[in-house]
Amino acid sequence: MNRFNFSLRKKLIWSALLCFLLPLGGIYLMTNYLTKDLLLERAVTSSEDGLRAIQSEVNSVMDQTLEISNVALMNSEIRQQIQWGQKKKGSLEENDDYHLNYSRLIRMLDELLRQYDDFYVTILGKNDFTYTNYSYSDFNPYKLYSQSWFEQLNHTPAFSTYWVGLQPNYYDGAGRRDPM
Questions:
Q1: How many domains in the chain?
Q2: Of 179, 101, 167, which Cα lies nearest the Cα of 139?
């Protein structure tokens, strides 16, 4: 006695289903496996490309920041004007020479930093010398003197860099200029 005694019709239906479903299942499993690997590879490639773009942008910002710093620190005319102002300001603040040299220094800094429109530059010197390429109404640079890290700058050698780490954005004027 054969328990699986199928009619010809049932045998044809089962054969058709097996000939159709078995390859379909195999194709589905193979496609799923290969697609998963392909999607993973594309996601990794896309993430790596994004990280390279971000790294390039950060490197560009750091290079431009270093360039701005070098312009301000290494330009002999600017250094001479700043040092003259620091030596003379205490006794000759009302003197026309001081104001003339101060305005000349500001004009030189404005011309040198004009190409860096995306950067907000603050130069703080001794005897309350301050230069900014933004409005004091957007941020008062004298607030930097009260920061906890500012005292460490007095102990840093000249022409050295002191990394203050991640800081909040002090300047709030950028949101007003670019509403997006």
A1: 2
A2: 167
> CA 48 to CA 170: how far, in whole Å?
32
95 and 141 within one domain: yes
User: Do 171 and 138 contact (CB within 8 A), yes or no?
Assistant: yes
Instruction: Kindly state the percentage of the chain with pLDDT values over 70.
Output: 83
In a domain, 92, yes or no: yes
Is the Cβ–Cβ distance between 122 and 128 less than 8 Å?
Answer: no
| Cα–chain center distance at 152 | 25
Domain assignment present for residue 176? The answer is: no
Select the more confidently predicted residue: 99 or 33: 33
User: Cβ distance 144 to 170 under 8 Å?
Assistant: yes
The answer to whether residue 170 is domain-embedded is no
Q: Which domain does 119 fall in, by range?
A: 75-149
Q: Give the bridge partners for 131, in sequence order.
A: 123
Residues 37 and 99 in one domain: no
Answer yes or no: do 101 and 70 share one domain.
Answer: no
Tens digit of pLDDT for each residue in 101-155? Answer: 778 888 888 888 788 777 888 887 766 778 888 888 888 888 888 888 888 887 8
Cα distance between residue 38 and residue 45, in whole Å: 10
Matching residue, tokens 């998963």: 36
Judgement on whether residues 82 and 142 belong to the same structural domain of the protein: yes
The phi and psi torsions of 153 (rounded to 5 degrees) equal: -65, -30
